[in-house]
């Protein structure tokens, strides 16, 4: 029984990493004042890009690079549309999500039956052999630890560096930042591309590590959960990570309950992550003032340099 709980904890960290990477990318976007609803589409395109690259080259790291590139490229297109052409951020993000779903399905047709090379097993020497704790904490893919380090790096960048202060000022008052001589549009564009790259990394992680295969729509709503997670975490990196593990744990709980023989309909268990998302958002929305205090003041609002 203890081994099953260790496996549950290990799976929670892996599932939470997907959400953490994507949500941290969206956090960077939103700190600069841009809402990107296209996370689901970017993650799907990155998932097939990474999977196809590994199938053809045998290199996982090239696969992750391809996923990052796919996410960054789609985010760059989104950035040009909403930042320079001033299209509606919400409509453009939804269009990107729909495009990503369709394009990934079309591009992945020939890879549904394709097989990846043998998956590597990772373990930190000595620590990985500790009973119970070792398998849960120290036999994870390096990107699990990267997500944790990324949280620390983002906290330092956003709250301890001048560049982070400028990024946050662009999200709070782009007019004031522009008046001080900062290139608001370029800063927002860079934030969008970085956010897309992290969503791409999350997508590649899904198809190469989390569930190493390709099927149409395999992201299965995780992009939307990551988007909700930024609000749930009130735009704080540490809370994003904790929230990601919470939602990851809820996702893995359905498989754990099935494995121990709990007699609950599988459809109900599959609903748990999305039901948890709805409940959390409903609870948060009961206190709109709390959201306004923490939310970047110019989130979702276009910026016109000439105005």
TrEMBL record:
The keyword Cell membrane applies. Keywords: Cell membrane, Membrane, Sugar transport, Transmembrane, Transmembrane helix, Transport. The chain crosses the membrane at residues 6-27, 34-55, 61-85, 92-112, 142-159, 189-208, 214-233, 240-258, 264-284. Coiled coil: none annotated. It is found in: Cell membrane. It holds the Pfam family BPD_transp_2. It is a multi-pass membrane protein. The keyword Lipid metabolism does not apply. Its main location: membrane. PANTHER family: ABC TRANSPORTER PERMEASE PROTEIN, SUGAR ABC TRANSPORTER INTEGRAL MEMBRANE PROTEIN-RELATED. This is Simple sugar transport system permease protein.
């Amino acid at each position: 029984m203890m081994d099953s709980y260790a496996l549950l904890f290990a799976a929670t960290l892996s599932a939470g990493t997907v959400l953490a990477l994507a949500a941290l990318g969206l956090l960077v976007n939103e700190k600069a004042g841009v809402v990107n609803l296209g996370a689901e589409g970017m993650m799907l395109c990155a998932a097939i890009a990474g999977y196809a690259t590994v199938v053809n080259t045998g290199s996982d790291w090239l696969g992750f690079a391809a996923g990052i590139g796919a996410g960054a490229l789609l985010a760059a297109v989104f950035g040009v549309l909403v930042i320079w052409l001033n299209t509606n951020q919400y409509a453009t993000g939804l269009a990107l999500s729909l495009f990503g779903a369709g394009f990934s399905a079309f591009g992945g047709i020939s890879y549904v039956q394709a097989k990846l090379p043998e998956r590597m097993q990772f373990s930190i020497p000595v620590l990985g052999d500790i009973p119970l704790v070792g398998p849960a904490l120290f036999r994870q893919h390096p990107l699990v630890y990267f997500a944790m380090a990324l949280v620390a790096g983002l906290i330092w960048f956003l709250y301890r560096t001048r560049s982070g202060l400028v990024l946050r000022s662009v999200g709070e008052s782009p007019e004031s930042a522009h008046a001080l001589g900062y290139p608001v549009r370029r800063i927002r564009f860079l934030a969008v591309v970085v956010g897309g790259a992290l969503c791409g990394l999350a997508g590649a992680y899904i198809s190469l590590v989390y569930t190493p295969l390709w099927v149409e729509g395999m992201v299965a709503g995780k992009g939307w959960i990551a988007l909700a997670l930024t609000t749930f975490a009130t735009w704080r990196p540490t809370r994003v990570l904790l929230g990601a593990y919470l939602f990851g744990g809820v996702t893995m709980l359905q498989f754990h309950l099935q494995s121990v023989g709990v007699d609950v309909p599988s459809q109900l268990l599959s609903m748990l992550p999305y039901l948890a998302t709805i409940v959390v958002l409903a609870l948060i929305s009961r206190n709109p003032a709390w959201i306004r205090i923490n939310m970047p003041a110019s989130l979702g609002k276009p910026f016109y340099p000439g105005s």
